[in-house]
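Thread amino acids onto this structure.
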């Protein structure tokens, strides 16, 4: 078996009563197993099979993200209202808009990742190590159960995130909370009276 460098996610699916392992960097790379170890072993075999199939067809095997070099620059679009509030916070804090946006993006990304099933990252030997258990529930797509999906919502925290970002006072408090907690959001949005 060759060294695997693709990250994997393993979660327990309570409806199917099995573990689901997947490698999001490869399309349709998802397997089930009775234990997390069995799911991980089956996933490693599936990754190998997919790589062999891609190479046999003369295709390009996707580069694992750990091997890609990123510039650290992303161009994003936002609403004019959000941009105005970002500019306001930047002036209040006497910092560049890019720095405020970067801090907010990092905090939101960290929160979003914390809400997903735990990931197995490649270990030093190249094999994937499993992290997961019954406490980490997810369906066959790695998404948690019990999330309200109303109006196209994206899971827990999204409503709270938008509540924070849609109200100027809450947005400013959110940014201050990031500063006070060393980059981690520590307070929820203020309740309007």
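Threaded sequence (193 positions):
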């Amino acid at each position: 078996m060759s060294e695997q460098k693709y990250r994997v996610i393993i979660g327990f699916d309570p409806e199917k009563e099995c573990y689901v392992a997947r490698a999001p960097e490869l399309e349709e790379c998802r397997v089930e197993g009775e234990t997390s170890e069995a799911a991980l072993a089956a996933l490693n075999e599936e990754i190998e099979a997919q790589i062999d199939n891609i190479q046999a067809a003369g295709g390009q095997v996707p580069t694992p993200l750990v091997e890609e070099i990123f510039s650290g620059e992303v161009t994003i679009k936002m609403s004019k209202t959000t941009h105005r509030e970002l500019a306001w916070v930047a002036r209040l804090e006497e910092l560049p808009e890019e720095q405020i946006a970067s801090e907010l993006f990092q905090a939101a990304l960290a929160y979003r990742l914390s809400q997903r099933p735990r990931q197995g990252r490649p270990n030093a030997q190249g094999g994937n190590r499993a992290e997961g258990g019954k406490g980490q529930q997810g369906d066959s797509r790695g998404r948690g159960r019990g999330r309200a999906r109303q109006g196209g919502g994206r899971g827990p925290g999204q409503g709270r995130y938008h509540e924070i970002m849609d109200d100027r006072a809450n947005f400013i408090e959110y940014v201050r909370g990031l500063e006070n907690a060393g980059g981690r959001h520590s307070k929820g949005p203020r309740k309007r009276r």
